[in-house]
User: What shape does this take?
Amino acid sequence: MGIVPWGVIAFYQIGAIVAGDDPAPIVRVITIAMLAIAAGYWFVAFHYRVTGLAQTVFVTAHVSLFAWLAMASLQQSV
Assistant: This one.
């Protein structure tokens, strides 16, 4: 859940900037939210050596938040 979404988000943002537009606000929200969760996951995993259930909870929260924000962006574009 790390490489592909970041690539898609970066491609969208760079494409919008090259085209002369600003990225949509929801794209910025998704970017900041995913960065915050990734940083939180790294911090906890690195400092506390999280494994098992805690790791599953972090990954599930990350994917869930990304999915909800993606759905919110679809609702705004309709």
Summary: The two ends are 26 Å apart (CA to CA). The mean pLDDT is 76.
